[in-house]
Amino acid sequence: MKPPTDTDTLTAPADATTVENPAVGIDQTAGNFSYKVDYAFDAGTGLSEDTVRYISSVKKEAPWILEFRLAALKKFFSMPLPTHWATKDLEAIDFQKIRYYLSQGQKPKRTWDEVPDDIKKTFERLGIPEQERKFLAGVEAQFDSEAAYSNIKDIVAKQGVIFVNSTEGLREHPEIFKKFFGKVIPTGDNKFSALNSAVFSGGSFIYVPKGVKVAQPLQAYFRINAENFGQFERTLIICDEGAEVTYMEGCTAPKFSTSTLHSAVVELVALKGAKIQYITVQNWANNVFNLVTKRGIAHEDAEIKWIDCNIGSRLTMKYPGVVLKGERARGEVISIALANDGQHQDTGAKMIHAANHTTSNIVAKSISVGQGRSTYRGVVHIPKHLKGCKNNTECDALLINTNSRTDTYPAITVRGDKNSTQHEASVSKVSEDMIFYMQQRGLTEGQAMSLAVNGFINDLARQFPMEYSVELKRLIDLEMEGSVG
Amino acid sequence: MSQLVIQNLHVSIGEKPIVKGLTLTINSGEVHAIMGPNGTGKSTLSKAIAGHPDYTITSGDVLIDGVSILAQEADERARAGIFLAFQYPSEIPGVSIANFLRAAQQARLAEGEEIDASAYYKRLYSKMDLLKIDRKFTSRAVNDGFSGGEKKRCEILQMAMLEPKFALMDETDSGLDIDALRIVADGVNTMRGPNLGVLLITHYQRLLDYIVPDHVHVMYDGRLVKSGDKSLALELEAKGYDWIKKELQAATA
After folding, report:
1. Best exposed site among A184, A212, A391, B194 by fewest CB in 10 Å?
2. Domains of chain B, each with CATH number or no CATH
3. Is residue A444 within 8 angstroms of chain B, CB to CB?
4. pLDDT at A111 over 70
């Protein structure tokens, strides 16, 4: 462990030889590189109380946060891995070999010019500044543990919107964030939410004041740059009464020879009549364990919509949920998962109805390629005493070649006779004849497969903001091109 | 002016020989019809030329303008000018005809070159007008839920857009009512010209009333056993295939 100091100096310029052909645009080839970085703060390898104390002191946190972290750590150690229902592959994670905190020590930068050159190069290759310049209302880009660049356009700040990283949010605005922090997803919700609660750093804290409708999406970008590193960002979005916001996050990591852990916690609170849309496009390298807990609470007349695209990773376990707490609240999860060779996408949704006349909608599409495996896991809960609740669940799986595996575990509990649900599931296959048909029109095998996949998710992708559906299409093209053998 | 040469072609499915030494030359501008009873290898011939992976060419050659295409993948053959109008076209859910054809056009451009979208749509609409196809048609997903006639119309539109050197039409008339048959025939006749060679594969003479061939060949047991002009088709219609079989038996006896 390096001693926590206040240095803001940056050492060691990027290894220039790794920078060739600086392409703009977010794709896998652009993501598959890393920079040599000397970290000013390094919590070392392994997990103990000292690790947690180190992180907390580097961040100069209030005592209650350290207490919160230490309690979470105890919880984490006491909980078993959920291998009784989830894959045994989780046992491959060695928590004592992971590095839990890495930072160059810089405070979040406010303008692009202040961002260190080597980090800038990373983001330039990923297309972040270009997007930001064009249309994004705000960007927070996280490089390993801490936000390296965050900016919020004047217009959003003038509306009273707070968009900061989690450290700053807890320090500068405790009166707002403390009230909701850890309330949507309790520390002990699952082993990985406990881990995140113990060692979290980075992530976004957003507060949108009453009645404010943020016209343009706020964006965050997460990137793992160091080997054996665990990324544990913590995001909390509070949308006050009648307010609206769209948040988009993108994730990448270069391919390292050893596996990497990404374990985030995202909490959303939509107060009366508020609307939150949360969009994720992740493109992790195929040795990342991606174990994320995402949940929102929708109060009266509020709406929470998760749009979740999972591409890459070795194992993803993610089930975005909405607790429909107030009457007429609406929850929606739109999920797309692509499991290529050696990957397991275990994804789904949770809808907990807790008030009358609440509605939920789940549309999950999965694509399994080669030896890839997709699992849909969902929970819909409507208790007996409620009335006028509705749920719609659709799960569609697409198989490309016979070795793929897909499973569906929908747990739908609807009690009482004044509520309704409908569930549809389908499994389809990209047949050899379909590929031949497209090839006969001049498309290569890879182009044919990606067209088939894009067709399969087309009705969902159309709901995405333009630049994200374009990016998704590009990611699928790359995945499919690589899968032709 | 192009030439498609099929030279002593032998095709197997698995271990089973289906096409057993077929030779045929098609020049651009010509329409050839291959007729024959079911199970005689007509469809196998067209799929093998197009490069379907299930069909193994065990000997012989297929050449376009003197260059063998057998080492090429199906998509390379397509880009070299081979178009197969399928007997049973595949459905591609979620992919509109317009986007599918656009991707097919894009695949024909050099790497890094982007298709000119407005020119593409202009061309697409002019072809549709020519074939009397409603504009709404191209926003539907390729063959998804189409009637037999709509599927064939979709094939004809693709053929018009891709402008192949040689079109292989595999039982294009099967399952079509007389109106749909007319649409297909009108489409092919519209495209007929000095730049297109056509191989019509059909079981019935009826299609040949609408698309009049220059040459008619009879296929039997994996080979072409008789060739002639359009009158041969009429003779077959009148006498049936048994006549050919008997003639063959007499010749080998």
Report:
1. B194
2. 3-252 (3.40.50.300)
3. yes
4. no
